[in-house]
Amino acid sequence: MEQLKRLAQGRLSQSQLNIIKQVFDTATAQDWFDDTHYSREGFAGGLVGLFRCGIVNPMQLERIAMLWAFNDFPQNMSTTQRAKLRTLYGRGEGKS
């Protein structure tokens, strides 16, 4: 939750953060999700962005997020895609 609060920069209420966290937890618990720091960070930032853009219905947010996560954060992503994510979101990462 702290990660989401930091990414939201104080602009979302606790109930809004709870919705985002529920969607985040659902997607990142999938067997196919690339469970690395940089994938989780990138996905969390994107979820906050989707919510801020008006996708606030929890069911719609989850549907969009699951498709997006499956496409952009799979365990079997290409080496190029993984390098881009690591560059963008891997700061402070201990190991992948």
The secondary-structure class comes to mainly alpha
Shape: globular
Order of helices and strands: HHHHH
Question: Helical region count?
Answer: 5
**Largest sheet data:** none
Mean pLDDT metric: 85
Strand residue content:
under 5%
Unreliable spans: none
**Termini distance?**
20 Å
Query: How many strands appear in the DSSP assignment?
Result: 0
Portion of residues within helices: 55-70%
Briefly say what this structure is.
This protein is an all-alpha fold and 96 residues long. The chain has helices at 2-8, 14-28, 37-52, 58-72, 79-89.
What does this structure look like?
The chain starts with a helix and ends in a 7-residue tail after the last helix. It is 67% helix and 0% strand. The mean pLDDT is 85. By secondary structure, the protein is an all-alpha fold. It has helices at 2-8, 14-28, 37-52, 58-72, 79-89. Helix 1 (2-8) packs across helix 3. It has five helices and no strands.
Give short descriptive properties of this protein.
96 residues, 0% strand, 5 helices, 67% helix, mainly alpha, globular
